Amino acid sequence: MDCKQAVSLMHDLLDDDLDRECAKELKAHMLECPACRERFRQLEEADRLLYGFNHRLQPTSDDLTDRIMSVIPKPRQQSALLVWVKRHPAITVAAVFVLVMMTSALSMWNADKQLMVKGAHLDGVVIENNKVIVPSDKVVAGDLTIHNGMAEVYGQVQGDVTVIDGKVFQASTANISGSVHQIDEALGWIWYQITNLFGSGPSLP
Amino acid sequence: MDTLEKRLVRLARKGDTRAFAEIVELYKDKIFHLAYRMLSNRHEAEDVVQDTFLRVYRNLDRYDDNQKFSTWIYRIGTNLCIDRLRKRKPSYSLDAEMTEQEGIDGYAMIPSDDRTPESYLIVSETQRMVHEAINSLPAKYKTVMILRYLQDMSLQEISDVLDMPVTTIKTRVHRGREFLRKKLERKI
Fold it and tell me: RNA polymerase sigma-70 region domain location, by residue (chain B) (predicted)?
């Protein structure tokens, strides 16, 4: 082993990075080379001085933490609602869905404010303002459905009479072969929609 | 071992400033001492500490949980110190210094506040020499030596902080040690 190699191994030894075999070789070299012994003594001493220097540490200013905390940007204040929404995405989606459905159903309900008359044969029917009149000498062949209006039946209806959000007046001369329904409330209206959807004629529970 | 810091980081990310203040408490002294040894100037060192935490705060989202927090914050602090040293003086080669023996020392050009409180803290002549010897190291060796001896890091940790291969760190420690041995020759 030459001295240059030995110096390199000395550094490895000081870095705790030398295996036993190499350490033995280094020791053998140093035993017969006074220059390397001196070199190693110096390096070890420098090492010791550097580690010793570690203890001369100065304290930081007392207000350093406060100074640091005053320069960091303030976090954006998130509203409680936003935080909640972020934490419960599924419930939020469900709530939004229900809200949309409710508003659309409500708007459908509210939009139906004008008079609407439905029936297969409405030739003989007289409409005055929001009153639907079946005159005594007329015959309505089939069902008669009225939204948002009064029905006054003097003549003959060969089917059901359904009045939503309104009233039915039957004169003594009236002849309705089917049944008569009056639907006034939202719930009833929904029931009517559902039963209508399934084909069979409207029948209230 | 690093879990406390990671938990604090998670809280700080959500905007918990108290958690961030705890991170500051945990690391301000360490970063200050690193910066103070690097720059030999109390005022500048505290500036570096402040800049380090500001940068940590701004980049909390980019901190990778797989990495040790200490490695990350030391990297930020070290880079800020190196930037300051670079702005301060022209770089020169350690090899040139070593071959010319007692040439012009780098530390002669470095402003330092030796005559302020440090002057009575460095009581012994030996302490003063060590201080000056470290100061006279070129930045790239100085960084490695300070992390190795004054922050007690292993070669592997230094390599992680500086993002350099361990072999490079090893070479720098060896050269830095030789440099300091020559500087301190009279004392040892």
Answer: 24-89
